[in-house]
Amino acid sequence: MKVDRHEQDEARRERIARVAFELFARGGLDEVSAQDIARAAYVSRTNLYRYFPSKVHMLLAHFEKAVQASRDDAVARLRAGANPQQVWAQVTARMADLGVRYRHLVGAVGQAVLGARPPANGQAEADRDAMTTAVTLVALVEPVLIAMRDRGVLRDGVDTRMAGALLVDACLLALLHGGHRDQREVLRDWQDRFSLILHGALAPGVSAGDVLAPPTHSGNGVTDTRRPGP
């Protein structure tokens, strides 16, 4: 059976991004060479650069795929009737955990995404990839905000896309400049930032604490984000 060339390319591209991330996670972005990645991914350096012009491209590609998986999970939970505040707590807890676990990679992702601009003629490939990642991050947050608005937690007419973009920026800035030691420190920092961003967007009678209460930890060490519905 003939194998589709596009599928082959996509599979190879995904493998390179995954292998590169595994190497970055162990040794850091600067310590891993293109030759290290090519050898681990079983491709030549020429092929490596055909798929990704730089190591940052590889990092963004893997990061974007992980974010998309988190979005799919969040949307599935919302469609199943989960409380949007609970889903929000799960999303932020996972982001905080990854931010601490891979803190040595946050700088490269954060700087690329925060500096991303809408596509334009002549824009560098890295900028376009960073913009795609930024849009994917907003797409992770926005469905939860829409669900909150539909449940009466946020005011009608709130621009969920703008709010999502601001929340994503707040997350990345906190990770870049916070120097957090663990997930709980990240979440505490985010509570203050989120409260400021959502000020005025909450429906009458709803407080920021109702939406942004930090998750607790169960006896087995697993984050427990359960909260009563509004």
Kindly describe this structure.
This protein folds into 2 domains: 1-52, Homeodomain-like (Arc Repressor Mutant, subunit A); 55-224, Tetracycline Repressor, domain 2. Helices cover 69% and strands 2% of the residues. The protein contains 10 helices and 2 strands. The N and C termini lie far apart (55 Å). α1 packs across α4 and α4 packs across α6 (103-114). A two-stranded antiparallel sheet has the order 1-2. The model is unreliable at 216-230 (pLDDT under 50). It has 230 residues and is mostly helical.
What are the key terms here?
single chain; 230 residues; Arc Repressor Mutant, subunit A; Tetracycline Repressor, domain 2; 2 strands; disordered C terminus; transcription regulation; transcription cis-regulatory region binding; DNA-binding transcription factor activity
